[in-house]
Amino acid sequence: MKIKYLLKPRNFFKHLNRINLFFSTLALSFFIILSSLVVTGKLKTFDDNLLTKIHTTLPNWFIYIAKTSYFIGEAEVAVWIVIFTLGFLVWKKYWNEAQVLALSTLSILILIDKIFKPLFAIPRPINRLVENAFGKSFPSGHASGNLLLYFLLAYILSQSFPKFKVYFYSLATFLIILMGVSSAYLRVHWVSDILASYSIGYIMFIFSITLLKSSENN
Fold it and tell me: Residue range 111-136: average pLDDT?
């Protein structure tokens, strides 16, 4: 039995332009190099000093912004954003966008929490400033998941409102950077965790929009 609105990608690699392929390859190379440095412990001193530098450089009142930003980026909040967005997309009959969003966000959750974190098994920083940060540290599901989510939202919105494309991506970038800095400030993640996660999130974003483009008009 055929499902009328099932995602049907065709000629995937034809829709992957050279610029996206170049930056995705660059991001993958960066992740591999960074992972090797983290596993061998060569970034431990650098990471520790950088967390201290971030915490001492930013003003004391930043902790309120950091905790708010970290809360917004929590998985529980992200799930509700995804559910609300999926509901809206289905209501508007944007079937492909809804399926790509659901598939991408679920995939990155599995990739980070079930594969990469157990594989690398890097402990989190000590003396964390929030109580609900558990499990392993590298890479950050918080950073990668939110980069994927907010960039996908920016992309989907840009298709309907192209004049505001720069604003959508600028807002998404600001929120993602703020969440990353907040995670480091609160000592929930090492900076290497966050940078590696940005790489993964970006690769997944390029994969997602290419999947969406290859499924349009099919």
Answer: 85
What's the CA gap between 212 and 207, in Å, rounded?
9
Q: Which residue has the higher pLDDT, 8 or 185?
A: 185
**Contact (Cβ atoms closer than 8 angstroms) between residue 202 and residue 23:** yes
User: Would you state the pLDDT for residue 35?
Assistant: 93
The CA-based dihedral angle spanning residues 147, 152, 154, 157, taken in that order and rounded to the nearest 10 degrees: -160
* Interatomic CA distance for residues 184 and 52, integer angstroms: 9
Which 3 state secondary structure label does DSSP give 73? coil
- Token readout for 125 is 């920083």
- 180 by Cβ neighbours in 10 Å (0-12 / 13-18 / 19+) ranks as buried
Report the SS3 class of residue 140.
Answer: coil
User: Per residue in 61-107, pLDDT tens?
Assistant: 999 999 999 888 887 888 899 999 999 998 888 888 898 999 999 99
> String of b and e for 135-152 (b: at least 16 CB within 10 Å)?
ebbbbbbbbbbbbbbbbb
Tell me the percentage of the chain whose pLDDT exceeds 90: 53
**Secondary structure percentages of the chain, helix, strand, coil, to 5:** 75, 0, 25
Residues 6 or more apart in contact with residue 146 via CB below 8 angstroms: 73, 78, 175, 176, 179, 201
Enter the tokens of residue 85: 């967005």
